[in-house]
Design a protein that fits this description.
Layout lengths: L1 E4 L4 E4 L2 H4 L10 H9 L13 E6 L5 E5 L4 E4 L2 E3 L6 H5 L6 E13 L11 E4 L3 E7 L4 E9 L10 H12 L4 H8 L6 E8 L11 E2 L2 E3 L14 H22 L4 H30 L4 H15 L2 H4 L12
Parallel strand pairs: 1-8, 6-13
Antiparallel strand pairs: 1-2, 3-4, 4-5, 7-10, 7-11, 8-9, 9-10, 12-13
Protein name: Monooxygenase 2-like isoform X1
Pfam families: FAD_binding_3
Keywords: Monooxygenase, Oxidoreductase
Length: 321
C-alpha cells in the first residue's frame, strides 16, 4: 500500500506481509465473486431479474412475496440480502439509510492486452477529496474518487458527465489515475451517494422477525472506508449457515431461534465496524486544513501500519462441515 498527498508526495507505504504475516488485501471484481458463488448452486436454484416489490404476512403465518413482474409466492423462510434499499428491512421497521455527506465515483479500467500496474493499493488524500486504485485482475483495475457534498444531489448516469466531474475533482493529481479512467468503459462508471445505518442496541429493530431475517447491507449498510461491507455480508452468511445447520440437521433449535441467535452473535461485530467506518471516513474526508495537516504529517507517516490497520478484518469461524 502506498499513500500519497494530492501533490504526489509519498506519506507512507508498507507491505502487508512484512507488517503481519496473517494479513492480506485481496481485491476481486464483485461480478466474479457473485458468479463463483452462484456456480456452486444447481442451475435452476436462482431466478434472476426477480426484484421484490412487497412483502406481507399471511393468516397462516407464512410470508407472502410479490415481485415486480407480479409473480407471487409464499415462503416459510425468507433470508433477505436485498441491499441498502431493502423492502424487507423497511417492512420490518428499519429506517432508510442515512446519507453521510460523501459521494463516491467508481469504475473499472479495462486493458485487453494486460494492465501495467504492480500489485499495490494506491491512495491519494486531499482536502475533502480522496482517490485510489488497485488491480483486480490481469486486465482490470478498480478506481474510486470520493468527494464531500452537503446533499446527495440528482442521480447521474450519463458517462460523459461522470467523466467530466471526476476529471474536475482530480485536477492535476495523478496522470496514472486519469489514464485508468480513460480506459474505463462507459458502462463501468457509477456515482453513489454513501450511506449507512447503525444498528443501535435497544433502538433498532432486531435482525429477524419470525422466519424472516436480514443479511448484509439489508441489515447493516456501512460506508466503504474499511473495505468491510461485502466482507461482513459473507461473514453473515457463514454464521447464518451454521445456525440453520444446528436447527435443521441437529434439531437443537427452531428456525426462528436460529435467526435470533444469528442476530445476537453478529451484532457485536457489525455495530462497531459500522461506527468505525463512518468515523474513519469523516476523518479522511476532512477539508479542515489543521485536520489534513495532522493526517498527512502525523497519522499516516507515524501511526498507520499494515497489521493494526487490518485487525478489524480478522474473523474466526468453525468449519461448516
Amino acid at each position: 500500500m502506498v499513500i500519497k498527498s494530492e501533490d504526489g508526495k509519498e506519506l507512507g507505504s508498507f507491505n502487508f506481509k512484512d507488517e503481519d504475516e496473517s494479513q492480506e488485501v485481496r481485491a476481486i471484481e464483485r461480478k466474479v465473486l457473485l458468479e463463483a458463488l452462484a456456480n456452486q448452486l444447481p442451475s435452476d436454484a436462482i431466478s434472476f431479474s426477480s426484484k421484490l416489490s412487497s412483502i406481507e404476512r399471511s393468516d397462516k403465518g407464512e410470508t407472502l412475496l410479490k415481485l415486480e413482474d407480479d409473480t407471487q409466492m409464499s415462503a416459510k423462510i425468507v433470508i433477505a440480502c436485498d441491499g441498502i434499499r431493502s423492502p424487507v428491512a423497511k417492512w420490518m421497521g428499519f429506517p432508510e439509510p442515512r446519507y453521510v455527506g460523501h459521494i463516491a465515483f467508481r469504475g473499472l479500467g479495462f486493458y485487453p492486452e494486460g494492465q501495467p500496474f504492480e500489485q499495490k493499493v494506491i491512495y491519494t488524500y486531499g482536502r475533502g477529496v480522496r482517490a485510489g486504485y488497485v488491480p483486480v485482475s490481469p486486465t482490470k483495475v478498480y478506481w474510486f474518487i470520493i468527494n464531500n457534498s452537503p446533499t446527495p444531489g440528482p442521480k447521474i448516469t450519463d458517462p460523459s458527465l461522470l467523466r467530466q466531474i471526476t476529471k474536475e475533482l482530480l485536477g492535476n493529481w495523478s496522470t496514472e489515475l486519469l489514464n485508468i479512467m480513460k480506459s474505463t468503459p462507459d458502462d463501468r462508471i457509477i456515482r453513489t451517494p454513501l450511506v449507512d445505518r447503525w444498528p443501535w442496541p435497544g433502538i433498532s429493530p432486531p435482525a429477524s422477525t419470525g422466519a424472516v431475517v436480514l443479511v448484509g447491507d439489508a441489515w447493516h449498510p456501512m460506508t466503504p472506508n474499511l473495505g468491510q461491507g461485502a466482507c461482513c455480508a459473507l461473514e453473515d452468511a457463514v454464521v447464518l449457515a451454521k445456525k440453520l445447520a444446528q436447527a435443521i440437521n441437529l434439531g437443537t433449535m427452531s428456525i426462528e431461534d436460529a435467526f435470533t441467535s444469528y442476530g445476537r452473535e453478529r451484532w457485536p461485530r457489525i455495530f462497531p465496524l459500522s461506527v468505525r467506518a463512518n468515523l474513519v471516513g469523516a476523518f479522511l474526508q476532512s477539508d479542515n486544513p489543521l485536520v489534513c495537516f495532522i493526517r498527512n504529517n502525523i497519522v499516516v507517516p507515524k501511526l498507520v501500519r499494515g497489521g493494526p490497520m487490518l485487525e478489524h478484518a480478522n474473523f474466526e469461524f468453525e468449519s461448516l462441515y
